[in-house]
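Lab notebook, bench 4. The sequencing result for the construct came back, and we need a structural model before the next group meeting so we can plan mutations. Quick request posted to the team channel:

Model the 3D structure of this chain.
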Amino acid sequence: MQEKKKILYMVTKGNFGGAQRYVYDLATNLPPDKFEVIVACGEGDLLIERLKDLNIRTIRIEGLEREIKVSKDFKVLKNLIKIIREERPDVVHLNSSKIGLWGSLAILYLKIVNSKLKIWAVFTAHGWAFNEKSRSAFSRFIYYLGHYLTTLICDATIAVSEKAKRDIDWLPFIKNKIKVVYNGIPDFETLAPKGAREILVGKNPKSNSEAIIIFSISELNKNKGIDVALRALSLLSKEVKEKIIYVVAGAGEEKENLRKLVAELNLTGMVRFLGFVSDAKKLLAGADLFLLPSRTEAFPYVILEAGLMGLPIVATCVGGIPEVIKDMQNGILVHPTNPKEIAEAILYLLDHSDRQREFGEEIKKTVSNFFSLEKMLLETIKLYQ
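Done. Here's the predicted structure in token form:
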């Protein structure tokens, strides 16, 4: 009988963003007769709680936080070395920037002190921190070096889009180490459209049946561009505004700034922030349009979820989004930080209900055919083997 491969997943935070969703999907869907799975993460509890419910063993990485803090991070490195040495996994699969660097350094150290140690190191680049315009030029340069070092040390790197691969594979000695494996999603259940609409609309005086609901699922940070979406809505005519409710599901540090912007732009009656919603994709059945106004992305799950629901999508042409959305074929692409283009795209869809249906049908086919969880699993398992 073939011995199981032991896979140790490591991710910086234990919340439930894109990287954590990816780890969860892999950890809970690998064939249990072939793989033993352990998940280690830093601050945050939601990922650990969900994995424990499915009897998947988890480890807390003490002191691990998203931001760089040199004094704490060397203690984290020691913790990682200890965890890997004790667990002796066949594969360590690192996810997100910080754990990618420190995890790869921990593996390198262990291989140096024990040349017989056989660990296959895989890193998934969910997004490159050097693409975040909100960071200083020096910070982005440091992240560039860190990502390069991570990719150099690891045996294989998964890029979640061709764009993510191109961003770094021009550097020496790493091109052949990088493979594109797109995120994939399974079919999922949603609430009934009527119930979902009632939650999205809330106590808004606009009729539940008549309102046009534009929906975004997004963390509230600058990278996600919700402020740009609000400025786009402010450009619409009074007549159009009266028909629309813009609903955002998500939490983050920009919450108060966005609320102030809503008031400044006189959008109070048409914008609703739901806050964090567990499994927000269940509400997609109640929306009419989906909007993703991000300044930067790698390869967002929400595009796949909205696409599988057959929603017409307006999204910025950043990261791997153009590898899913083909402009005016299965959705509409706009330039980032361009409120005018977003407003024009919304108006176009409102004026062309036939195109809404066409885009919805085409994006559903695209996601079903090319971005399934089964395909992501198969291609990832090939790298483990």
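The chain has two domains: 5-180, 193-370.
Will bring this to the meeting.
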